[in-house]
Design brief:
The structure is a single chain. This protein has about 100 residues and is of the alpha+beta class. The chain has a domain of about 60 residues. Helices cover about 30% and strands about 10% of the residues. The chain has a two-stranded antiparallel ribbon. Strand 1 and strand 2 form a beta hairpin. The longest helix is centred in the middle third of the chain and has 16 residues. It is extended and about 50 Å long. The N and C termini lie far apart (about 40 Å). The relative contact order is 0.17.
């Protein structure tokens, strides 16, 4: 049986070829790094754009950076561009991990 391709009557949607991290934190970011990025309404904890960016970079660097912290401790080794999944309960801080795809 041959595959059937269905074409929408709507125009094609442009999908940019960039990571979520680059989309949220572009090189010439027009937003102030002190603006809130995440607000936890249960605890009133506010994470700024700058804090979120730096934490995501530190996390990714620990996985694929020169020291490869996780691999150095006997864990798996990752390379730049690898995609990983981390399963966690729904907590404010899981957003740090889901934002960055290993230093795109």
């Amino acid at each position: 049986m041959a595959a059937t391709i269905y074409k929408s009557s709507y125009p094609d949607v442009h999908i940019p070829e960039q990571s979520i991290f680059t989309h949220v934190f572009p090189p010439n970011d027009p937003f102030n790094s002190s603006l809130p990025a995440i607000i936890d309404v249960q605890t009133d904890r506010i994470i700024s754009r700058g804090e979120l960016r730096e934490t995501a970079l530190r996390f990714a660097s620990g996985l694929v950076g020169p020291t490869q912290t996780l691999a150095a401790r006997g864990g798996p080794s990752f390379a730049r561009g690898d995609a990983i999944a981390i399963y966690r309960s729904v907590l404010l801080f899981h957003r740090y991990f889901s934002l960055h795809r290993l230093l795109d």
